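Page 47, continued from p. 46.
Same chain as before, 400 aa.
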Amino acid sequence: MKNKRIKVVVGLSGGVDSSVAAFLLKQKGYEVIGLFMKNWHDDSVTLSNECPWLEDSNDALIVAEKLGIPFQTVDLSREYKERIVDYMFKEYENGRTPNPDVLCNREIKFDVFLKIAIGLGADYVATGHYCRKTSIENAYGTTTYKLLAGVDSNKDQSYFLCQLSQEQLSKTLFPIGELTKPEVRKIAAENGLITADKKDSQGLCFIGKVRLPDFLQQKLKPKTGVIVEVPATSDHYHNKAAFFASKLEELQYHAKKPLYSYEDGAVVGQHNGAHFFTIGQRKGLDVGGTREPLFVVDTDVNNNVIYTGQGKDHPGLYRRTLFVKERELHWVREDLALTLDGTLEVMARIRYRQPLQKAKLFRVHGGLYVDFQQKQSAITEGQFVAWYHNDELLGSGVIS
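Result:
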């Protein structure tokens, strides 16, 4: 009896990365099936010619035909709306800034899509992410999977996969993780793939580049409020001179956001809704006459006020420590999860493409502190912090 070929379902997005992933898998002898995920129908908020799903679907079909692999489209728009879009609206409404790409990978690509693939008899799913996976064989025949950064440091996408579980990793392949972007494009061109020179998609996962205010205004109504400019000399930014009674007290102090009020500054303009803005944002304020550009240093959605400061070095943008609540704490390497009072020296980032920063983790009752060696700009509630050892992503959490 012939050995059964390993079946892999590739998430063909219509881009060059997933196209080359499918090509490499077929070249290695896998039985490959291409699936395109249709997750968004509303083009009214999508900027023209940016990631239109119909064009992407057609490109994915042409690639599948070129490779001689089966292809089909699956409509996951209901799941996407429930798990991603509704979550986004709720987070923005509460004054937090979500990361839909991280959630999309956890909830759609490596959950809903993965289950569809398994239902088709697949042994694995594969994507065009620039990251790698290795494994450790443990005693008693168990396996621990490691999520590693992609070889191409300019394209490393491990951060977007920071919420994956051991179970999800066990069923996943990343065929282009050992390649650089130029190498991927070269392979596509040499093998006549239509996506070889196609621009990378931008914007929200599966939606494309959107007018975010238009997108949010589908549910969140505009509401006029004031913009307050807070001077860099505010008492909020003075360092505490006294010694801390404990390390926990020090962490709590450095993790605390300044609580602003009207008295801390002067009203300099109006906005159309505090929930449309995020910490560190510069565009959309429409306030002139300042020596340096204004940046959002905080938003108060309850009172509909935006607090701003002049310049990207404004002290209101910087904090040294952040906190992740217990329920929003996730370990890719469950075997390395910290127990109460445990600490760990790591490298961490609070956004995609940010260079890794030295930090120390402190496990406490109710969650975990991430204490950076240097203050970080625009630590934003709702975003994800991810921590690494060398090039391995160990865990992540939602910033509180």
